[in-house]
Amino acid sequence: MRAAMRQTKTRKIVILSDNPESNLRFKNLENVFIVPLKPYLLWELREAGFLNVRDLREWQVDIIADYDDYYLGHEASIRAMVEERSDLSWDHLKQGILDLMMPVQYIKNILKEIIEKENPSGFELRILDPGTELIFKEALRDFA
Amino acid sequence: MRKILFASYNGADFSTIEPLFKLLRAEGVVLMMLRGIHPPGQDRLKGIKSFDFEAVKCRPLNGETVIDSLKSDFKQYLFSKFKRELILEYVNSWRRIERRTEEIILEGAPDLVVLSPGWVESAFISEVCQRLRANYCYLLPSYYEFKTIEFYDIRQVPYLVAGEAGRERLIKKGVFAENIRVTGNPVFDDLFRFRERNLSKRNSVFRQFNKSGSEGREKRILFTAQNIAGDETLFQLLGRYLKARKNVRLFVRPHPASNPNLWKSRIRSCSSVEIASSKRPLNQDILKADILVTESSACILNAFVLGIPALSFKSDFFPKDAIFTKKEDVLTAENYAEIQEALDRVLFDEKFREAWTSSHRDCYKRYLSFGDGSSAARVTDVLIELSKKKPALTDLERMGAVNNNRGGQDG
Q1: Over the stretch A84-94, which tens digit does the pLDDT of each residue have?
Q2: Residue B46: phi, psi to the nearest 5?
Q3: Is B290 helix (H, G, I), strand (E, B) or coil?
Q4: Contact between residue B227 and residue B258 where contact means Cβ atoms under 8 Å apart
Q5: Is A129 an 8 Å CB contact of chain B?
C-alpha cells in the first residue's frame, strides 16, 4: 500500500469532500487522506483505486443506534451552548436552533477525534452541497 | 353540546382528523377548525366552523431586538441557514397565532383543543391553552409518532398514538406513560382496508406470472423521492442499476412538495424510467411494485402493511429521525454495491423473495397496534371522554403542586 502512495512534502492534511471530481488530484498522496462526506462516495473512491480514503465513522466516539440516541446524546451540550450564546426568550426558536445545531455538534465531536488521533496540519473542505458545507464550516469554527 | 377545536392539521396531517368528523357529529359534537399553513380546501370543511390566522392584525414586533440578542458568530450561522426576513416573518407570525388562538378560545369556548404536535404553531397554541386553562391533547398525525424528534415541545397532556412503538418513543422523549393512549390512526384504517381489497388479487396475479416463468415478467422498482439532496444521488445509482439489468422498470414518485418538471427533465433520456404521479394514491403504486426504494421515508410503513419489500437508502452520515424501522425489517444500502445486491436478491432470487415476504408478513405489527378498521371510533371515544374532563393543571402549576407536596412531607 505504501508503495502505491505518492510522496508529498506537506504534513498530513484531511480533505473533507462530497465532490468526486476534486478528489482526483489527491489520489494516493501519502500525507493526505480523503474523508468522503457521503457514504456512497466512500465505496466509489475505493473502487476507483483510492488508497488514502477513510470512513468518517472511524472517529465516531459514541455508538448511535438511532436518531433518538443521537438527539439525546447531544441535546444537553447544544442546549447549554445556545443558552450561553444568546439571551433569547423565544423557547421555540431555541428549539429550532437546537435541531439545526445537532449535525454540527455531531461533526464537531468527530473532528475533535480526528485532531487528537491524527494530528493533521489542517482540514480542506471540498464540498458541493451548500447545506453540508455550512455544517462543516460551523463545526470547524472552534478549531480554527 | 360539546365543542372540539382542531388546530395545526396542516397539509397531509388533515387526513388523520377528517374521518373523525362524521363520528363526532353523530355524537352531537360541534366541530371547529383552526386553519394553519396549507389548509384543506373549503369543500372538506363543510359544516365545520373554521378560523384562520390571517384575520388578526398585530403590530409587528421589532424583530431586530430578537436578532440582536444572538451573539455574532452564532448569528452568522443562523442567517446562512435562514434569511433574515424569514426569521422576522416567523417571529411575527407566531405572535399572530398566539393572539388569534386566544380570541378563538375565548369566543368559541371549546371543551377540547386537539393539536398536531409536529408544527411550531402547536407549541404556541398549547401555551395559550395552558394560560387560558383550556383542555387540550395531541392526536398524532400518521407517521409522526415515528419521528418524534420534530416535536417542539413535550407537555404532560394526553397523546393519542397509532401503536406501541410510538408510545415507547414518546416515553423516551419524556411523556409520562399514563398520558399516552394507543388508539390507532384512521389513516391506517384506510391502508388496512386497501390491503383487504387488493392484496389477495395482487398475489394471485403475481403467482400466475411466476408460474409462467418469472424471468419474463418485467420487474418494477418504485422510488419515492423525498425532495432532498440525496434524491439525485439515489436516482443516479438506480439508473446505473437499470443499465446493468434487463427487464427492470423504475417508477419515480416525486415528493408532493417538489417540482414535477424537475423530474421530467431528469428522466428525459432514460427509457426504463417513468414518473408516477404523486396525485395518485400511494398505496396503488406500492402494490404494483416488486420493491420500494426510498431514503428515510415514512411510506416504508405502507410497504410493510402491503407486504412489499422495502430498501432504505442512506445518502449521508447524519442519523435521521425518519428511519424509524428496526434494522431487520428493511433492506438497507448506502452505496451502489449494496443497492445492486439488495435489488438482485429481491427481483431475481425467487427463493429469497418468498422467504423475505413470509418472514416479514407481520412486521408492521411492531409499529401499528391495530388493523381492524376501528381506529376512528376509538379516537372519537377518547376525544369525547377528554372533552368532558376538567382542564388539566398547567406544567407550572403541576410543578408547584409537586413542590408543595414535597414541602408538606418535609414539614
Answers
A1: 555 444 555 66
A2: -60, 130
A3: coil
A4: yes
A5: yes
Q: Which residues pair with B112 in a beta bridge?
A: B4
Q: Hey, what's the cell of B350?
A: 425467487
3-state helix, strand, coil in chain B (%, to 5): 55, 15, 35
* Residue B223, CA distances (Å) to B251, B261, B300, B334 in order: 6, 17, 11, 15
Put simply, the answer to whether A39 touches B317 (Cβ < 8 Å) is yes
Mean pLDDT of B327-342: 93
Query: Cα–chain-centroid distance for residue B261?
Result: 25
CA distance A3 to chain B (A): 28
Flag if B70 and A88 touch (Cβ within 8 Å). yes
Contacts of A104 in chain B (CB under 8 A): 77
**First-last CA distance in chain B:** 46
For strand B219-224 and strand B112-115, is the pairing parallel, antiparallel, or unpaired? Answer: unpaired
Asked if B77 reaches chain A (Cβ–Cβ under 8 Å), the answer is yes
Q: Report the distance separating Cα A71 and Cα B319, nearest Å.
A: 9
Q: Is A124 helix (H, G, I), strand (E, B) or coil?
A: strand
Residue A143 contacts B where some CB pair is shorter than 8 Å: no
A140 touches chain B (CB under 8 A): no
Closest CA to B393 of B384, B379, B403: B403
Task: Look at residue B383 in the predicted model and tell me its pLDDT.
Answer: 97
Please state whether the predicted TM-score (pTM) of the whole model is above 0.90.
Answer: no
